[in-house]
Amino acid sequence: MTANQANSTEPEAHQTEWLDEHRYPLTRSQADVLSQLAELCGDDDPEQALNALEKSRTLDPDTEETYLRIIRLQLSLGRRDDARRTAKLLRQRQAGLGLPPNPRTERALATLFAGNEGS
User: Fold this and answer.
1) DSSP readout, 73-106?
2) Helix, strand, coil % (nearest 5) of the chain?
3) pLDDT in tens, 28-70
4) The whole model's pTM is what?
């Protein structure tokens, strides 16, 4: 082993791979609990529901449905600009993952925004 190899971060990467395997299910579980919390308090406290969904999105930014739920809630609260920013974040995330726009998602977004033209 050379001095460069000994100082490399590659062994560290191998040491943390197993952590990632165990971390993701826990992170996913936390995101799911936050989504359930949003569902439970959505009617009574939409702000708390929105906060829970935002935390869920932060934990697991690849779950498209979370973005859509956030957008629905933002629109119901009259926050059209926030909803547009969230839609933009979703599209940027999908593009960053190399995913083409999902026709189902684009239809859902069009429907959501069309139903809130007056907001």
Assistant:
1) HHHHTT-HHHHHHHHHHHHHHHHHTTPPPPHHHH
2) 80, 0, 20
3) 888 889 999 999 998 899 999 999 999 999 999 989 999 999 9
4) 0.76
